[in-house]
Design a protein that fits this description.
Tetracycline Repressor, domain 2; Arc Repressor Mutant, subunit A; about 70% helix; single chain; mainly alpha
Length: about 210
Amino acid sequence: MPAATTTRQPPPSRSSKDTGRRDTLTPQRWIEAATEVLVDRGIDNVRVDVLATELSVTRGSFYWHFRDREDLLRQVLQSWRASATEQLTARLQQTSPDPKAQLRDVLSLPFRGRAAIRAARIELALRAWARHDAIARQAVDEADASRIDYISHVIESIGFAQPEAHQRAFVLYSYLIAESQLGPVGTAAERVARRRLVECLLQEPLPLAASQPT
């Protein structure tokens, strides 16, 4: 049975404690708590009772914001996609109109300190969840496709034809995932060498006429 499938139960009665906190304990706070539990303890522990304990409220508080556990899990996935794909892509595009500058920023993502480490931990947990859950699998697949599509369009801007740009984008994206998920493998010099190797994928293609044998 997929991890996101639960039997819906009627919400417990709301206590005065819940009523006092429903305006201050936002849906995003529940989503953040669920994400932390997902990362630290896995999807099976993302349950209403566990989260209520983490947030020091009764279970009734949960139902002010979510229909059931499935509703929360879907919103966890939506929140992740918004922050880790849509908003990130928008920031990269706004940083510079120069496609090469955008690609340099993309290549730096796995090395951005604590933010990169946290993002990698969340993504690793989501990918583990997606191995057993169709909804999570779809969310991860859509995020991967969106990211590769963005990188492909930027590489096209350098001068590559679409099919080749997409292939190079896939290789570059695979490198980013490997660097973020595997952690600091090798020495600093080796990591620089790997990055330089990937940067070779971004060298401007020769004009067709110049590439023909004489």
